[in-house]
Write a structure and sequence with these properties.
single chain; 227 residues; alpha/beta; D-Maltodextrin-Binding Protein, domain 2; 2 domains; six-stranded mixed beta sheet; five-stranded mixed beta sheet; 8 helices; 11 strands; 30% helix; 30% strand; elongated; disordered N terminus
Length: 227
Amino acid sequence: MTAVFPAPVAETSTKLVLALPKGRILAECAPVLARAGIVPDPAYADESSRALRFATNEEGLDVIRVRSFDVATFVAFGAAAIGICGADVLMEFDYPEIYAPLDLGIGACRISVAEPRATAGQDDPATWSRVRVASKYPNVARRHFAARGIQAEVVELNGAMELAPTLGLSRLIVDLVATGSTLKANDLVETEVIAPVTSRLIVNRTALKTNPERVGGWIQRFRQALA
């Protein structure tokens, strides 16, 4: 008979793990971590470093640095007890194992629909029955258009989204927008905001239930950091 192994749960080790996103949000996390009393090894902020796990000044806490989309997966599956990730990631994956108690107010941007400037506004989307969309948020895109009675055929891309309409890959894109400068540089315009996005503190529900003092204590420290 094949052995069945239980899924890992973050609190089974002596240290809790805090998952942080690579990229622009990493720098914005730093003041929040400092106010919560967390000082990671300085190498964690050096994205040229090949190390992914770092000690902190807190003996019972390590931080890991992973892709923003992967933060939610590490927390949902219990590899990390705590994490920081954007609301866009939570919207896309909607993991029931994740509890997001705090909006940290950092990483402000939005998920938006965009299309070429030349075709924007030429016809009424209310008349569409289907549309092809390029996005790294297939679930968000499908739900958004389904709510309007439109079937979205989603072409999944992880980058260079702005090329899709100009090369005939899709009519629209659904992507994260901060300043809009990339859209402008590629002659696209934002036609609809699906949702505003900020970064959230997330925790694994099982870790919080089985280790409420430690995990709950960190939620409280982040709450005080925001105050």
